[in-house]
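Students often ask what a holo structure prediction actually looks like on paper. The answer is less mysterious than it sounds. You provide the chain, you provide the ligand, and the output is a string of discrete structure tokens encoding the 3D arrangement of the protein together with nicotinamide-adenine-dinucleotide.
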Amino acid sequence: MQIVVIGVGYVGLVTGTCFAEMGHHVVCLDIDESKIEQLKKGEIPIYEPGLQEMVLRNQKSGRLSFTSSYQEGMQGARVAFIAVDTPPLPDGQADRSRVFGVAKSIGLTMKEELLIVTKSTVPPGTTHEIRRIIEEQGKGIPFAVASNPEFLKEGSALADCLKPDRVIVGVEKEEDGYLLHKLFAPFMLSHDRFIVMDILSAELTKYAANSMLATRISFMNELSRLAEILGADIQQIRKGIGSDKRIGHAFLYPGIGYGGSCLPKDVKALVAQARALNSPLSLLEQVDAVNQSQIEWFINSLLQALADIEQPVIAVWGLAFKPDTDDLREAPALTAIKRLLANKANLRLFDPIAMDRAKQILPDNPFLTYCSSELEAAFGADAILLVTEWKQFRFIDMEEVKTKMRGHLFFDGRNQYAPEEMAKMGFYYKSIGQPVIESHALRTDSSKTS
Ligand SMILES: NC(=O)c1ccc[n+]([C@@H]2O[C@H](COP(=O)([O-])OP(=O)(O)OC[C@H]3O[C@@H](n4cnc5c(N)ncnc54)[C@H](O)[C@@H]3O)[C@@H](O)[C@H]2O)c1
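The corresponding structure tokens follow.
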């Protein structure tokens, strides 16, 4: 089947490539001409494990091609997926201008019967608007619209796309469901995980899923603050409640808040839509508020610990919003950097993958130093702030790290290490919702026993 995927970002490029991998003929279309030129040359503009090889393989086979022309992209297409970005507007609502721009372009260039599928995360009602915009162009060619919200996760996007937990589609007519089922069947050979519903419900399902995940995170983050005051350990609590089958272990990890291109914007967009419809989602409003205050809470405690140092040097480990991606959209590291710079800190930054992107985004500032390793970042630092839980941070020789530092503060926003071990090495180790173990207390205890 000939498919056109419109918007070649994280979602569009992965989706298009996976369809090509399954034998479909796919044209990926984007108005960003420089991106398309890059892709034609086999250069991948984003970091996603395994993606480069798969793009090259399918490009070579002739099943995957790239264009910036709607005329060319729409040629022969039976299904068009819309996968453009829907960033937040200042008031939190999703900006649908790109989606509507695509609808207009489709309406003007479609040549034969087409099923137009919204993959972008859009407020309920948007796919119906898309139908209206296409009709307005007045071509008279028969078409249908559908919704197919995307659930892939950056960092494991290929696996998520090739073997999805579920495929949700919202359709107007049964036959559109059959067509989409045929398209997705190769991804679900072992057992069918295809769920068909109406379009509005499919659109809302996406927001509901992300809002539920965000709620779990904010719940744990707020609870971690109470645990800390009580002297309880949130890690024990996490295991305790996660082992209840009704609750499960996923998304119970406390940290310095969720970021990325989806959770923050989707929660805000749903809250904004609900308010506009006079049916506020007060729980979700708090989920967002807790998320914003969590990072403030942690950075405040770091600044407090550094209060006696006039121009503290802080190593920031991890910039991407999560491991295995170079995506910095709404990354907690950016919020932390802004706060710390405002407090006259000298920052030494390191991320295994996102350094180039960080240099493009962050302002030129003499107080920012870009480092090529964790150790280099730690050099002369009064404190280390771990923001992203990259795997390579797990087994670092902390004794060596300590020798490079000027101070001994380690603020771990992702609870990566054992507090006792860190204290033994002489760190003041502050994590999320776990008691700080003072290293002198440990030394006194061991001197008693020896
Ligand atoms: N990134 C994720 O992990 C993820 C996961 C699930 C859902 N989503 C949703 O999927 C959508 C896409 O997200 P993304 O992260 O891939 O976005 P992205 O910013 O990485 O890519 C969007 C692409 O669309 C292109 N574009 C914009 N207007 C266009 C137009 N008129 N015609 C053709 N191309 C156009 C842009 O040039 C860009 O390359 C969003 O709605 C997002 O919420 C994202």
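Residues 6-12, 29-32, 35, 83-86, 98, 101-102, 120-121, 150, 152, 154, 261-262 surround nicotinamide-adenine-dinucleotide (CB under 6 Å).
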